[in-house]
Design brief:
Helix 5 crosses helix 7 and helix 7 (132-153) runs antiparallel to helix 9 (199-210). The longest helix has 22 residues, at 132-153. The chain folds into three domains: 7-79, Orthogonal Bundle (Multidrug-efflux Transporter Regulator, Chain: A, Domain 2); 97-176, Methyltransferase, Methionine Synthase (B12-binding Domains), Chain A, domain 1; 179-294, 3-Layer(aba) Sandwich (Rossmann fold), CATH 3.40.50.280. It has a five-stranded parallel beta sheet with strand order 4-3-5-6-7, with helices on both faces. Strands 1-2 form a two-stranded antiparallel ribbon. The chain is 56% helix and 9% strand. It is built from 14 helices and seven strands.
């Protein structure tokens, strides 16, 4: 059987792909917190071990629990009994609310200016310094909501909306990688027919997965009959439908009532109303979807 010591050393690009963390963030966690302890190859390349990989996975787990980056790093270093005896760099302070606001403004400015490299750099800074929950709840969700409102008012162009959402979707897709492989409760997430906006639902699924759930993600414009077949085949612990306008869900009232009898059903998004949820026997997710995912307790 292979032991951690038998595993080959990795260059930072391979470690980044394996963990779903950008090399910029890995370097930041190495320099600020001492989480990575590479060795040098004969050619001078920095190589990372299975212990480094373990520490980053622990960091990701603690970030998903809601710890800040500084708190998560402290916890990982306490947990790691095999860490180098050399003192690690001092763990940096948590970001202040004003700094987070400044980064959120910088992200918006980069996206509005069609500046993809700057937007990615801001995302890297946010992910390296904040918990995942804070990034998604306090930066990404508010930006998406504001962008949607401006698009509806006509103060954001189609090009701006498409550019920004494609950048954010790419980052969310990286965070969602492997979310179907959990061993906890199972959730099916979908948008009903006619609904084209699903990024808030993606964010919900990412946080839900970090809390141990296995995610089956169907995304936009999903026919209800397909959901019914999936429910019968997989017997999920939860089905979540998200919509941005009430008419999208109201037109499906009889089908949704039948779906709610097959599996626990929750409605989310601006299109979910208390009246509809009560009428069809579904739960209403009235809060932000990050908090709803953190607090999810279905059996």
């Amino acid at each position: 059987m292979e032991t951690p010591g038998d595993r080959p050393l990795l260059r930072i690009g391979e470690l980044s792909r394996r963990l779903g963390v950008t090399d910029h963030v890995l370097r930041a966690w190495e320099s600020r917190y001492g989480l990575l302890q590479p060795v040098r190859s004969a050619g001078g390349f920095r190589l990372y071990s299975a212990a480094d990989e373990w520490r980053i996975r622990q960091m990701q787990a603690h970030l998903a629990e809601g710890l800040s980056a500084a708190e998560a790093a402290r916890t990982v270093l306490r947990e790691d009994g095999s860490a180098s005896a050399e003192p690690a760099p001092p763990v940096g302070p948590d970001l202040t609310a004003s700094t987070v606001s400044a980064l959120a403004a910088a992200l918006r400015q980069a996206l509005e200016a069609f500046d993809e490299p700057s937007a990615q750099a801001v995302f890297d800074r946010l992910v390296s310094d904040l918990s995942l929950i804070a990034v998604l709840r306090d930066v990404v969700l508010p930006y998406l909501a504001e962008l949607g409102e401006r698009w509806q008012r006509g103060t954001a162009s189609i090009a701006q909306e498409h550019f920004a959402t494609n950048i954010i979707r790419g980052r969310l897709a990286g965070l969602a990688r492997g979310w179907g492989g959990g061993h906890g409760p199972r959730a099916i997430l979908a948008c009903p027919p006619g609904e084209q906006h699903d990024m808030a639902l993606m964010i919900f699924g990412i946080v839900l997965n970090r809390n141990g759930w296995s995610i089956d993600y169907f995304g936009i414009n999903t026919p209800v009959e397909e959901l019914e077949r999936a429910v019968d085949a997989t017997h999920p612990d939860l089905v979540v439908l998200a919509a941005t306008i009430p008419e999208t869900l109201e037109s499906l009232r009889p089908r949704l009532a039948a779906l709610a009898r097959r599996a626990p059903l929750a409605l989310a998004g601006a299109g979910a109303t208390p009246q509809l949820a009560s009428a069809i026997g579904a739960r209403l997710m009235a809060g932000d979807l990050v908090t709803e995912a953190v607090q999810a307790r279905w059996s």
